[in-house]
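sanity check both lines:
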Amino acid sequence: MGCQESEVLDRKLSDFFPEKMRPDIDSAVEKVLAGEQSSLETIQTPPEQPAIIWNAILNPVCRRDGKISSFVGIFSNITERKHAEEQLRESEERYRQLVELSPDAIFIQSEGKIVYINAAGVRLFVAEDRSWLLGKQALELIHPDYRQIVRERIRQLKDENTKVPIIEEKYLRLDGIPVDVEVVATPFNYQNKPAVQVITRDIAGRKLVEKVLLESKEKISQILNSTSEGIYGLDVNANYTVLNPASLRILGYQDENDLIEKAHIISFITQSLMELRTQKRNVLPAGQSLKESTFTKI
């Protein structure tokens, strides 16, 4: 404890510790002198030195007649361990804050059950609070069409101990409504047990946009295919990007790819490309149309 023997003899144990800790130390000494083992953690602050954290175990010493004459204290310096524990707690707290603030649903499953879920996960499953989900079998929240896939991914996580790639799945909300999600999972250790951490992104909005774009593309395709007018598109280099069936018939082609391969030549426009560009610059600003052009198949 950093003291000479002469400085320790005939003094109380609590004299060597900060005043605010002395009542706890005196209480532990009273307990051990009453015949019970006692333990406590104490902090010693030597002058101009870093504080030292001690773990003390006090055991009574009995005389032959069974009466307690004194006690023996075993002190262990646990400063480094306590600092490491504090750093771990701070790290876990930072991680918890990041997880709680994440817009993606994050949950941990252990032994097949959900043991932790963040706020975004509660919202994803439209639960009132976490208690509605904690302890629930994770597979119950997976759409039946995807349960076998999820079982196989869980097996890979356990056997190979490596994360599984991101895939699209469907979850079941607590009200029974399916929701499209994107999922990635990785092995995780939770409370000293093997577990799986799952990060889930709600992609229902993205899937809706994809559906609308697909429907729009199909409608445009129907219009292009049904009209008798030739419709084509050019990029900034005057290369063909779109040709409908009518334009192929007008130009005497059957396969769009054949025409696009030759489009960069622009050989079937009788007037020069420069004239066409000049006409476009001069005519279109006035709200007029390009003059008729003659096309000749190569």
